[in-house]
Sequence to fold (114 residues):
Amino acid sequence: MQPITPDIDAPLYGIGVAAAMAGMHQQTLRQYDRLGLVVPVRTAGQTRLYSLRDIARLHEIAALSSEGVNLIGIARILALETENARLRDRIAELTNQTNSTAVVVWRPHQRRGF
Fold:
């Protein structure tokens, strides 16, 4: 039997549970949603549902805030981290491509005197 691996992107947690897991007030999560720092999935009834990735991001926001970074700075840091991850994924994708169009030509030099 294979171990069950949780989907960290699955929106499973309501705002109350997510706030408790992040150690924050529900109103703080609403403010972060308005600012675009953490954007949970919305149900048809507009209920916010948070994933484990969202909750990890809330912890990251709390850590940056405790270090004295303001919300605008936090937004910029998170955007740069997201872009950095996207670029790393793209580099890995390009590195792993097997269908290269590069042509390598090798011509051995003839040694003189032998």
About this structure: The first helix runs from residue 15 to 22. The mean pLDDT is 90.
